[in-house]
Design a protein that fits this description.
Among the domains are: 353 residues, Rossmann fold; 174 residues, Rossmann fold (3-Layer(aba) Sandwich). It is 36% helix and 12% strand. Helix 20 links the parallel strand 19 and strand 20. It is elongated and about 90 Å long. GO terms for molecular function: aldehyde-lyase activity; magnesium ion binding. Its EC number is 4.1.2.-.
Length: 825
């Protein structure tokens, strides 16, 4: 990444903040508050110049005021700080309902008009700006991708710190004030986010300043951290590795300039400490400091009417959303609104044309220093393509010599070697993230060129292997944290991958949802947001080989979740099933090159056969599915009695073993493999899917199709609902059956074992003709299970099978030499 170094970073001011700057901040705060209220309430007459009536108020009041004035205060001071210090800065706005503050900030620094020219810097533009907020055909109410300067959608709480710390990794000039709402602070992901300070290096990374915005209330209840004692609060954060500073304002009649002066002084004290941390980190004596954080305590709804209808509003949960919900309906509430708007003295802030006066903006940063213009907040503009090694150097070439089905290789281990060299070629632009599973999922080759970044204490190299204060691998046992780190890393222009056990991807379902929504909004309607690198998720330790961990670890449903995002031709989701090591390499190459996607790469880590050469894998991946002519006994679609299809490594293993049994019976079948699940989707919904003609050519137009599928069968059924021949598909997938058992029993209880697939194929062809064979297969299934019960391991007929098409005459044709240690977590 060509990371911009804006200004002279980490510079102390060494002088008091000027009164002129503080006066500018106060004007900014008043203007931002006025703009925020206008967005929530006004549809016309934005500066109340004409007779101001209830007709100027929106019919439907949508938005949130409670957290907004505190955010406006903080952002005003952050702008002053950026201008005075020339510091490369991106803000994270964690409070979900602070959207009016973010759009107001962008309007005031000019980036909103630059991005959306129809929002002009005059009264007409101001009216459009107000009316579009939370309005049909307008913009959402959160600090969303539509807002310049945002890299964090505030609509889902809990990820402010994860995104902030991900953004600063390998970004040594970047400063990120991360504003955490006190409601957000009660969520599990945010609670774990405080630990991020042990996983960064102040020498090679930037600095995050967590700002806990304590305004006391959520929607209707007090917040926990606002009600505990100051002593307990400070001890808590000190125990988390922070030096907490507290600022309290708004609870008495202190004049605003005094408040601004106190805050600026405290901010400079904190900044001086940050500069000292950065300076110390440049020496050889790197040690984890107590990073400063700010506890910012103000009333909820600060500066709104203190009481409405005799009920406490400012400093109460009643200010959370729209304090004057009847401002259009009742004259009394309208008058309160009018007085509230006038309290900010808009005549001092806007000129006769409705433009913000120059003296309001004089203190603001300029150019790329502006919050809305910082390139780090539009990471695609600074993203560099990865320098990828030649993938042919990592291919499993033995399959070309010995035939399809060679060896027993751990596919993800081969991916680990490829990814190791990507890190070697891109030492500051690529990271691996994982919840303590990098080695378990076989990516540990990366440790040959990097370490796990860790700054939480060491025992010895003998115990704490591959751990160092700097490194391109980050692990913490939190799926939330790892996904959040990678999101922040990607949104600021870098690349990466994270891995998880398949069943525990569900821990971050909502995060994947939100990132997909961000990408969808970007692809559909935000062309100025340049493409970012894709989120690559290695889904391993999957359902079919979690026989040792049991039912709790057996759930492939991440595919079902991601399919919900596959409409409108947005193409923000990729779901790939790595049949073998070569296919996994081809998938990885494609995913590492892709942008604006979430790529779920489902791949096994246990020893398995290699079915395809790299060239064959690439060709299949290009289309998404392919007929395996070399495995088929039918020479044409017309000759085929049945199609045997599979998606996933174990389903492919089982369908290929079934094909051997059907071959012995003289059945004419066609074998099809699917790597890109979305290639099956209706071509009406996905213009990158197989056409109906291609679909019919691969799966035939009228023959029965037995489909062994990695995940839940309804995935495939939903995708092919209007495809040719869909009524003849018989899909076998995971049926929510499992236990701590054997590999054979896992496929048996879910009706996807080779014996059941063979029997099912015979039923689909002619159940009466093959009744005896079907009965024989069903009986053997029970016998094989009983064998496992009696012996504790699977029947040799299952474990010793080798594909009939393999050339076993050469020494070493069947087995590979890859290490298989460390199978369990």
């Amino acid at each position: 990444m060509t990371s911009p170094v804006i200004g002279t970073p980490w510079k102390k001011l060494n002088a008091p903040v000027s009164e002129e700057a503080l006066e500018g901040v106060d004007k900014y705060w008043r203007a931002a508050n006025y703009l925020s209220i206008g967005q929530i309430y006004l549809r016309s007459n934005p500066l109340m110049k004409e007779p101001f009536t209830r007709e100027d108020v929106k019919h439907r009041l949508v938005g949130h005021w409670g957290t907004t004035p505190g955010l406006n205060f903080l952002i005003g001071h952050i702008n002053r700080f950026i201008a005075d210090h020339g510091q490369n800065t991106v803000i994270i706005m964690g409070p979900g309902h602070g959207g009016p503050a973010g759009t107001s900030q962008s309007y005031l620094d000019g980036t909103y008009t630059e991005t959306f020219p129809k929002i002009t810097k005059d009264e007409a533009g101001l009216q459009k700006f107000f009316r579009q907020f939370s309005y049909p055909g307008g913009i959402p109410s959160h600090f969303a991708p539509e807002t310049p300067g945002s890299i964090h959608e505030g609509g889902e709480l809990g990820y402010a710190l994860s995104h902030a710390y991900g953004a600063i990794m390998d970004n040594p000039s970047l400063f990120v004030p991360a504003i955490v709402g006190d409601g957000e602070a009660e969520t599990g992901p945010l609670a774990t986010g405080w630990q991020s300070n042990k996983l960064v290096n102040p020498r090679t990374d930037g600095i995050v300043l967590p700002i806990l915005h304590l305004n006391g209330y959520k929607i209707a209840n007090p917040t926990i951290l606002s009600r505990i004692s100051d002593e307990e609060l400070h001890e808590f954060f000190h125990g988390m590795g922070y030096e907490p500073y507290e600022f309290v304002a708004g609870f008495d009649d202190e004049d605003h300039m005094s408040i601004h002066r106190r805050f600026a002084e405290l901010w400079e004290t904190i900044w001086d400490e940050i500069c000292d941390i950065k300076a110390t980190a440049q020496t050889d004596n790197v040690h984890r400091p107590f990073y400063p954080m700010l506890i910012f305590r103000t009333p909820k709804g600060w500066t709104c009417p203190k009481y409405i209808d005799g009920k406490k509003t400012e400093g109460s949960w009643r200010s959370h959303q729209v304090p004057l919900a009847s401002a259009r309906d009742t004259e009394a509430h309208f008058e309160v609104l009018k007085n509230w708007l006038e309290s900010y003295k808009p005549e001092e802030l806007f000129d006769a044309n409705g433009a913000v006066k120059d003296d309001v903006l004089a203190f603001m940063p300029k150019g790329e220093l502006r919050i809305g213009a910082n390139p780090n907040a539009n990471g695609g503009v600074i993203r560099d393509d990865l320098k990828l090694p030649n993938i042919e150097d990592y291919a499993v070439k033995e399959v070309e010599k010995y035939g399809h089905g060679w060896g027993q290789l751990e596919a993800t281990r081969r991916l680990g070697v490829y990814t190791r060299d990507i890190i070697k070629n891109n030492p500051h632009d690529f990271r691996i993230f994982g919840p303590d599973e990098t080695a378990s999922n076989r990516l540990q080759a990366s440790y040959e060129v990097t370490n796990k970044q860790w700054d939480a204490g060491y025992i010895s190299d003998e115990v704490d292997e591959h751990m160092h204060v700097s490194g391109q691998v980050v692990e913490q046992l939190s799926e939330h944290q790892m996904e959040g780190f990678l999101e922040g890393y990607l949104l600021t222009g870098r690349h990466g991958i994270w891995s998880s056990y398949e069943s525990f991807v569900h821990v971050i379902d909502s995060m994947l949802n939100q990132h997909a929504k961000w990408l969808e909004a970007t692809v559909r309607e935000i062309p100025w947001r340049k493409p970012i690198a894709s989120m690559n998720l290695l889904v391993s330790s999957h359902v079919w080989r979690q026989d040792h961990n049991g039912f709790s670890h057996q759930d492939p449903g991440v595919t079902s979740l991601l399919l919900n995002k596959c409409f409108h031709n947005d193409h923000v989701i990729g779901i790939y099933f790595a049949t073998d090591a070569n296919m996994l390499l081809a998938i990885a190459e494609k995913c590492y090159k892709s942008t604006n996607k979430i790529n779920a790469i489902i791949a096994g880590k246990q020893p398995a056969a290699t079915w395809l050469s790299l060239d064959e894998a690439r060709a299949e991946l290009e289309k998404g599915a392919a007929a395996w002519d070399w495995a088929s006994t039918a020479k044409s679609n017309d000759e085929a009695e049945i199609v045997l299809a599979a998606a996933g490594d174990v389903p492919t293993q089982e369908i290929m073993a079934a094909s051997d049994k059907l071959k012995e019976l003289g059945i004419k079948f066609k074998v099809v493999n699917v790597v890109d699940l979305l290639a099956l989707q209706s071509a009406k919904e996905n213009d990158e899917a197989l056409s109906d003609e291609e679909f019919a050519d691969i799966f035939t137009a009228d023959k029965p199709v037995l489909f062994a599928y990695h995940s839940y069968a309804h995935d495939v059924r939903g995708l092919i609902y209007d495809r040719p021949n869909h009524d003849n598909f018989n899909v076998h997938g995971y049926e929510e059956e499992g236990s701590t058992t054997t590999p054979y029993d896992m496929v048996r209880v879910n009706e996807i074992d080779r014996y059941e697939l063979t029997a099912e194929a015979l039923r689909m062809i002619d159940a009466d003709k093959y009744a005896a064979k079907i009965d024989e297969l069903e009986k053997f299934r029970d016998e094989a299970f009983q064998f496992a019960v009696d012996n504790g391991y699977d029947h040799p007929d299952y474990t010793d099978w080798v594909y009939s098409g393999l050339n076993t005459s050469e020494k070493g044709a069947v087995t590979a030499t890859a290490a298989t240690a460390g199978d369990n977590e």
